[in-house]
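In the previous chapter we treated chains in isolation. Here, by contrast, the input contains three separate entities that must be folded as one system, with a combined length of 669 residues.
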Amino acid sequence: MNGIWGQLDQIFVTLQHWVAGLFPVWLQPVVATLIAVVGIVAAFPGIFALTTVLERKGLGRIQNRIGPNRVGPLGLFQPIADGIKSLTKEDIVPVSADGLVHFLAPVLLVLAVFLGYATLPVGRNMVLLNMDAGLFFFFAIGASTELSIFMAGWSSRNKYSLLGAMRAVAQMISYEVPLLLSSVVVVMITGSLSTVKIVEAQGGFTGIFPHWYVFTPWGFVGFVLFVTAALAETNRSPFDLPEGESELVAGYFTEYSGFKFALFFLGEYLGMLSIAGFAITLFLGGWGAPFSFLAFLPSWGWFFLKLLAGIGFFIWLRGTMPRLRQDQLMNFAWKFVLPMALLNLVVAGAWRFMGDGWLRWVVSTAVLGGAYVLLGSVLMRRQGIGPRSYRYAE
Amino acid sequence: MIFGLTVAFVLVAMVTVAGAMGAAVMRNVVHCALSLTVTFAGLAILFLQLDAQFAGFAQVLVYVGAVAILVVFAILLTRGVGTSLIYVFSKQWTLGLGIAAAVFALLGWAVLKSFPVSGPVAASEVTVKDIGAALMNQYVLPLEITAVLLTVAMIGAVIVAMPEKKVKEGEQ
Amino acid sequence: MTPLAAYLLLAALIFAIGLAIALTRRVAILVLIGIELMLNAANLNLIAFWRFGPHPEALTGMMFAIFSIAVAAAEAAVGLGLVIAYYRHRKTTDLDAMTRMKG
């Protein structure tokens, strides 16, 4: 790709090479990596700030009220006010709390979450670490965040914190397996764990429609399962029982105030952003354009547009759906999501070997649709939900 | 280069051994479990230094992500929160320490006295594709046996840890 | 000291510390922690020999280590289940008090 749009597409890469070129040869790889790291550390917390404002205003409009509107035009400078507030609030640590563990928990969370951005391809040639097992790296680092949540809940010596922490960890462990299984489908069809290769495999176009995996039956089911498991992994509504304000005060970060609370907040939202980024990479074509005639626009632009759409979807879900109870949540994970993910694997394998044509579409859709209806009806039968009945006062 | 070893290796090795020593001497059992997690992470970094990418990430995913949490949950379910024992070590601790020291001395002597291996071999690029192919061609029997073993272990752990049902008085 | 000898010594040290934990501490769960450390030390040994050995493309060492990780995780689960079951009966995990089968 050449011309002005091609140059705009690669503008950050050119910038990185130019700055690295100012240093001696033996220092250049280090400087190039450092610039990419600075880019990630600057861009994603910036999106986090935007997300907090979007969330509060979005939730406010869904709940028929105006969100924050005092600071700046339409309240858009609210994150600055939030940042100043969290930096200047007093840092209260309970006397009986375990000092070192209490301090290390938010640090470990933010560390693990930032590490997870290393293999996310933000644009064409714009990935920090092109590892052969890039997706595996992300899931391994994501599994370490559970430990920091447990550390936070346990070190506070508070029953609400401990209860919230155990619920959160149980939820995260239950949804870890469906998360991995629903992404294994993509790995199986692509033939590689490298995120760059997965995005490139979705780069073709038939006519004007892209080859994104979400447009295939198994890809669509995989996408839905991945997003469900991702919502549960990051403790977002409707799976936010561990930190529900009406349930457990604030769950595992009850005893955190000031900057450490801001770090937890940052860690949680950055986790949500990174897992949304990986959902886009795996199923929605990464930095690819949705129509072939729009492919000239910069790749990083498409990625951030999709990320914004994903965030909007998460905020919409938070404002709309009621919270799931702990046992409903675990039931859902082990009895619905996991069997569907396993069946999805089998269907994807059959898809691969049935060759091109309309037969594989019909068979896959029929099998997956039938399984969805069957599993759903079997699970719902246990609920005993019948027609609504009323009791009136005499 | 200290003793012919890179600085990175020495640093990571010190962190790993510190984590293991922490797990050995700390009073509070949860602290021991967290220090064990540091050891697991250090070992994962050592695997990555040895160009075993898949094994390193598997170590983080399985050990730090699952086994450490399992250990911590078990501690919580069997001790209660925040109690420390008066006696940390058992009555025969000198004997145990002596045996461990003897084992280390023997292994260390065996390592230092053996024929030196000719320098580091050039790292062959081991891709995940190779591992997958090996798992499906040469190692398919161990893979299936491991699958059966994991299923049996899961069922066994659930049955062993399940609370027993109370038998009613009337029926025998 | 060659890098291989350094890795082997480190693995031996971690193994010895794991053995010391398993033999000297009083809490039952710490014995399981010691066993996990010993298994990890053996894994390090396997990977070090794979890397510096004659045939790294045969993948034997790495496969062995991966299967060992899986089996160790399963064994940790069963062992902790046992400890929990014992705690439910005796309300203690003190190893020095587990003397009911003493001859």
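The first helix of chain C runs from residue 3 to 24. Chain C has one domain: 3-97. Compare these points with the single-chain example from earlier in the chapter.
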